[in-house]
Design the sequence.
């Protein structure tokens, strides 16, 4: 979501004549887009802001802005903490940023704008794509959340759940495709409830609309809430041909006791039942998830239930984090906090278990052929100035299930009727499997 918001910010600033620069020392304007979903992210944001103080002293005319969730959460307190900041703008103020920058340039005033709006301005969804021609892009279809999980800051910094109109979403995706985008990831805190409050089309119907866009190869989405994961959406994985066979379905814990304290509104049994039904409609679907370890009151037996759930589902991958108190959330007041040492130990146990499962799943792909959407040169290739041969060039991309594949072109340039390039679909024979990626050779473009 912050990547998408940053693109919106950059697009708005380009309309004012600004150009992005890789050197912060040369900048006339620095915008820090922040996240407060975890304590570490917030700490990193303030640490970075601290390093900008000396830059401002050397260049007083420099404009420094802070946006995103920390800005929404802290508001004018940021100006007291960092008096060299010129503007603090919240998650609903991205579209108003160009106007505020003009005011600062004219009056050298300091501005705080954390006002939230009940609806999404449709103009907020459109971006100037001249600054970036990404093969894969994010498109926000809704913002905010109404679930109020007891640990989560999102409703307080992103506001209540609001969906964009389907027409606006379709138009934005078409603009992306015209600029070279071939894969779209739809964003929302709970995409499963898209359009319900506004009495619009369902999320499954929206996927069907997007599927009809010419030139688009793949559709992904994040994130789904298990309690709203409907059979219609399960069927979409079978019927919507551009929808990738991968779902990120955060479960957070395998213990019913902890799920209830988290206010997740589903049980372990319901989650497992939905996974089973989903795999009936789409047997080869990849399932990834999120987990929080060390939630207040989590006992060793609760944690073991989480490990058991991971083994039962056999996730393709997951993101796991140690619990941390976040401002305004009910869980900050919960008793029986788990020690930092215990949280760290549980996190490592969980990650080690998942790595074993992921390695096994990846190893099963060796000798098989997968389709990869080429995103560019691999990180390894970026370190090579001039390859010795054309077929030494290493490319990277992802499978429909979201697995990273690094591959070389099989055969010399003269033997191929087509050339591998960014944005093309390539069939790759997998030779090797690692913890976080696959490696192979192209067999067909």
Sequence:
């Amino acid at each position: 979501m912050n990547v998408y918001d940053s693109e919106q910010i950059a697009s708005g600033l380009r309309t004012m004549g600004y150009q992005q620069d890789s050197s912060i020392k040369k900048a006339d304007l620095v915008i820090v887009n922040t996240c407060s979903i975890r304590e570490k992210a917030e700490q990193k944001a303030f640490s970075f802001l601290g390093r900008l103080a000396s830059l401002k002293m050397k260049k007083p005319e420099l404009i420094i802005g802070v946006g995103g969730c920390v800005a929404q959460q802290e508001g004018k307190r940021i100006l007291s903490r960092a008096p060299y900041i010129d503007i603090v703008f919240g998650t609903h103020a991205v579209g108003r940023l160009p106007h505020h920058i003009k005011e600062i340039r004219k009056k050298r005033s300091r501005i705080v704008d954390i006002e939230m709006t009940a609806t999404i301005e449709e103009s907020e969804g459109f971006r100037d794509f001249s600054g970036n021609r990404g093969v894969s892009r994010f498109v926000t279809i809704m913002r905010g959340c109404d679930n109020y999980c007891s640990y989560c800051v999102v409703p307080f910094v992103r506001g209540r759940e609001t969906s964009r109109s389907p027409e606006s979403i379709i138009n934005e995706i078409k603009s992306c495709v015209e600029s070279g985008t071939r894969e779209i990831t739809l964003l929302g805190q709970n995409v499963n409830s898209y359009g319900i409050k506004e009495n619009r089309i369902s999320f499954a119907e929206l996927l069907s609309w997007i599927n009809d866009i010419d030139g688009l190869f793949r559709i992904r989405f994040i994130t789904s809430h298990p309690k709203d994961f409907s059979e219609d959406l399960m069927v979409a994985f079978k019927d919507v041909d551009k929808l990738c066979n991968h779902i990120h379905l955060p479960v957070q814990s395998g213990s019913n006791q902890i799920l209830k304290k988290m206010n997740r509104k589903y049980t372990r049994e319901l989650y497992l039942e939905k996974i089973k039904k989903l795999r009936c409609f789409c047997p080869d679907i990849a399932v990834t998830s999120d987990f929080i370890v060390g939630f207040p009151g989590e006992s060793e037996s609760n944690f073991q239930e989480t490990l058991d759930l991971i083994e039962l589902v056999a996730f393709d991958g997951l993101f796991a984090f140690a619990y941390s108190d976040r401002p305004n959330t009910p869980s900050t007041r919960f008793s029986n906090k788990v020690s930092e040492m215990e949280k760290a130990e549980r996190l490592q146990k969980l990650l080690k278990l998942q790595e074993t499962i992921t390695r096994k799943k990846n190893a099963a792909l060796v000798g098989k052929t997968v389709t990869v959407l080429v995103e560019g040169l691999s990180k390894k290739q970026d370190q090579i100035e001039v390859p010795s041969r054309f077929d030494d060039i290493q490319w990277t991309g992802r499978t429909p299930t979201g697995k990273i594949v690094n591959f070389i072109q099989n055969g010399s340039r003269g033997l191929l009727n087509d050339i591998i390039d960014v944005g093309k679909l390539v069939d790759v024979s997998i030779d090797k499997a690692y913890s976080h990626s696959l490696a192979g050779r192209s067999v067909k473009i």
